[in-house]
């Protein structure tokens, strides 16, 4: 199975169990991180950009002061795939270094 194949409902639920803080909203993996301040939020985004570009898998994300909201889904597959789950895990690892 390709990393870009849609996850089944049971696969998606199993993935969510391993990704605390992430939820499924409108068919997308969603998470909001709250950092100490803008510098930490922006630092997270800058660090994440390297991983995102290396994976060639770009999220929809938004930054407002100390918050970064992220939606993940594989556009060409039309939903959540293993690639989204992998990226969510990598983002969590990066964020853990900067969260208060």
Task: Describe, in plain words, how this protein is organized in 3D.
- The longest helix is centred in the middle third of the chain and has 18 residues, at about 40-55.
- The mean pLDDT is about 95.
- The chain contains three helices and four strands; from the N terminus they run αββαββα.
- It has a four-stranded antiparallel sheet with strand order 1-2-4-3, covered by helices on one side.
- The protein is of the alpha+beta class.
- The protein has a domain at about 25-80 and about 85-95: Gyrase A, domain 2 (2-Layer Sandwich).
Uncertain runs: none
State which percent range the strand residues make up.
15-25%
Total strands: the figure is 4
Structural class by secondary-structure content: alpha+beta
What is the topology, as strand order, of the major beta sheet?
1-2-4-3
Please name the fourth-level CATH homologous superfamily of the domain at 23-78 and 85-96. Answer: Transcriptional coactivator/pterin dehydratase
Mean pLDDT, rounded to whole units?
95
Termini separation (Å)? 38 Å
Report the CATH topology name of the domain at 23-78 and 85-96: Gyrase A, domain 2
Q: Could you give the order of the helices and strands?
A: HEEHEEH
Total helical segments: 3
CATH class of the domain at 23-78 and 85-96: Alpha Beta
As a percent range, the share of helical residues equals: 40-55%
- What coarse outline follows from CA principal-axis ratios? globular
CATH architecture classification name of the domain at 23-78 and 85-96: 2-Layer Sandwich
């Amino acid at each position: 199975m390709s990393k870009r194949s849609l996850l089944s409902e049971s696969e998606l639920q199993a993935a969510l169990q391993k990704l605390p803080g992430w939820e499924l909203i409108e068919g997308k993996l969603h998470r909001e991180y709250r950092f100490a301040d803008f510098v930490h939020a922006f630092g997270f985004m800058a660090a994440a950009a390297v991983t995102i570009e290396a994976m060639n898998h770009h999220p929809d994300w938004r930054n407002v002061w100390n918050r970064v909201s992220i939606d993940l889904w594989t556009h060409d597959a039309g939903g959540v795939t293993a690639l989204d789950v992998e990226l969510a895990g990598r983002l969590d690892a990066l964020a853990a270094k900067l969260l208060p």
